[in-house]
Amino acid sequence: MWNRHWPAAALAGLVLLGASAYSLDRDHGPAGASPGAAPPDAAAIRAAVERIDEDAIIANDAHSREWLSYNHGYAEQRYSRLNQIDTQNVSRLGLAWSFDLGSTRGVEATPVVVGGTMYLTGPWSVVHALDAKTGEELWRYDPRVPPDYASRACCDVVNRGVAVARGKVFVATLDGYLVALDPATGKELWRRDTFGKYRDKYTQTITGAPRVIGDLVLIGNGGAEMGVRGYLTAYRMEDGEQAWRWYSVPEDPEPPFHDASMALAASTWDPEGAWRQTGGGGTMWDSMAYDPELGLLYVGVGNGSPWNREVRSPAGGDNLFLSSIVALEAGTGRYVWHYQEVPGDTWDFTATQQIILAELDIDGSERKVLLHAPKNGFFYVIDRTNGRLLSAKPFVEVNWAEGYGDDGRPIEVEGARARTAPWETKPTAYGAHNWHPMSYNPETGLVYIPAQGVPLAIESDPEYQVDTHQPGHPMSNLGWNLGYLVNTIAPEARPFGHLLAWDPVAQREVWRQDYLSPWNGGTMTTAGGLVFQGTADGRFLAYDAADGNPLWEVPVSSGVIAGPSTFELEGTQYVSIAVGWGGVYGLAQRHTEQMGSGRVYTFRLDGTAPMPDVQPTENPRGTTLVSGYDYDEQDVGPGALLYVSSCLFCHGLPGINNGGALPNPGYVDVQTLESLPELLLTGAWSASGMPDFEGKLTKAEARKIAAFIQSIAESVTRAVPDAGS
Ligand code: CA
């Protein structure tokens, strides 16, 4: 068992999928807004948000004075026409202000700026309204997400931000509510339960930023790792009444179907598969884009649940609409077309990564296209009027498909589904490009992609059972449904991360900048000829968009995962980035000693505010490998299997590195290991998101986990004598 499911080979410096637990302690009282220091000019703030509608969002594209939605506008390009800051003067950028979010978990939000007010979210779906000129907090809204949602989420308690329109600020919370707030006070105007009848049936979350179209506000759900049915819902902005819902996968293989698209999808699923219990997946947790001329909403659909199609749909099938781009009529949610990038997904190859709309000259004619660089490593150019694939080329090393045929389908590599033998996938479930937003500059014609590789091997799990704790089966004690074992062989690839400038017409790399590690921040590009990006090693940089020449950089208080935004106020251009290390990869590992709390930094030319202290901070969790815990050698093997099923994706391998946003258990003190059974089974850390393992583990099992932790810490100490100092 020990050797088969989790060999010592895993010690070869692996990095593993992360999930969640832990944060700063929070008061989990009733949801509500708290006022900031200065009484804002409420009427002016409300008026600024009241005038935002579809026309205003489109009009802003012509000058970009405001940053009105997560990815700037409906084309989702993250391209600003502001050019006060340019390649000649960017070296003069200085801090205008910074604001401490008071958070310790991943910050994925892009600051949205309307009038003179900035709205952004921190971890736990907390909304902050700041004076965009001074950084002074006007109000904050804490939806008081129950702490157990930390372990219901695959990928940290993150949130990517708000939407604003028609006098309201919209936020979607980790526990599934869509909330409309008063832009001047943060007071709740209405609140809708988006999980509804599925709240008790599935383990689901929301991490995405809502989008606004016409009089509708749209949001999807997340949670395909655990098991959920994917859907996207449109609500009336005015009162929160549901306008329409589109499901990405059928609920039942037999009619009646929710709509015609579900009838089309049903025949692509094996009626006997595990998807009947797990919901099938297909969550739409991030990307949307909108073409007002065509009236089409484009949405990216997530992976299958369970991951492994062999158990999800044993007879095979494309499993529509997993891993697809789908075009819907924006006003009605009616299905129009789809393009499935990965038929019968089995690798967690979501198509939820950002969708960019652009007009490109292809073979002598201007085409309305959709650009996509999802997890699976291919860059897609799709005709967005009809969903036809124009081209697909790999932007990183890819080993699951040789390319795409004339029929628009991938030519799969034999063995890549790991049916009978382990397979090191390239890319992996972490994605060649994940949610970290990319950007497109129409002047350079280039797309700026936070590209990466995080090694992982998968092997089909013949013993997998739906919703069952099976020691050795990844995170199965916390509700994960993969149908795969991971890293039963040690991956040979090395992790990497770089900023990739990609020509979408020629489908080739133009330049790149290599980084220390994967999991770097999103990008933003401007008419000043610049690309901005933060990095996992705790810097914020500006590059020449044409050739990638680095022009400016500044150290920030932790690793950066979010994307920047820019705006103009009283004739001055500002650039903002929200900083806070975390997310699925960042939970268990990090690449800087700078682990300060979440913080927003805003820069301008000749800004003179002093940078907050970013000296490397002593890791508060201890830097010495645990020693002295007395254990029975026979407990180590079973303890390893329990660790894999209960702890691994959140806390990484004990002693392999010193934790990410969460502590690494190899560095606790011996008293913690001695009292681990009591700590785990009494919910000692549950206020900060750690699950209460009462009913999930026995005290004897907790002692076996402690034995495993101590044993590995000793192995690391022997192999790397100075690892603990
Ligand atoms: Ca996934």
Description:
By secondary structure, this protein is an alpha+beta fold. The chain has 2 domains: 8-15 and 620-724, Cytochrome Bc1 Complex, Chain D, domain 2 (Orthogonal Bundle), CATH 1.10.760.10; 42-456 and 491-605, Quinoprotein alcohol dehydrogenase-like superfamily (Methanol Dehydrogenase, Chain A), CATH 2.140.10.10. It is 12% helix and 29% strand. It is built from 13 helices and 41 strands. It starts with a helix and ends in a 6-residue tail after the last helix.
Helices, strands, pairings?
Elements: H1 2-5, E1 32-35, H2 42-50, H3 54-60, E2 79-80, E3 93-100, E4 112-114, E5 117-121, E6 127-131, E7 137-142, H4 149-152, E8 163-165, E9 168-172, E10 177-181, E11 188-193, E12 211-213, E13 216-220, E14 231-236, E15 242-247, H5 260-266, H6 275-278, E16 280-281, E17 288-291, E18 296-300, E19 304-305, H7 309-312, E20 324-329, E21 335-340, E22 355-362, E23 365-372, E24 378-383, E25 388-394, E26 401-404, E27 410-412, E28 423-424, E29 439-441, E30 446-453, E31 457-460, E32 484-486, E33 496-503, E34 508-514, E35 523-526, E36 530-534, E37 539-544, E38 550-555, E39 565-569, E40 572-579, H8 583-586, E41 599-605, H9 636-646, H10 648-651, H11 670-674, H12 676-681, H13 699-719
Parallel strand pairs: 2-35
Antiparallel strand pairs: 1-7, 3-41, 4-5, 5-6, 6-7, 8-9, 9-10, 10-11, 12-13, 13-14, 14-15, 16-19, 17-18, 18-20, 20-21, 22-23, 23-24, 24-25, 26-27, 28-31, 29-30, 30-33, 31-32, 33-34, 35-36, 36-37, 37-38, 39-40, 40-41
Helix pairs in contact: 9-13
The structure holds calcium ion.
Calcium ion binds next to loops.
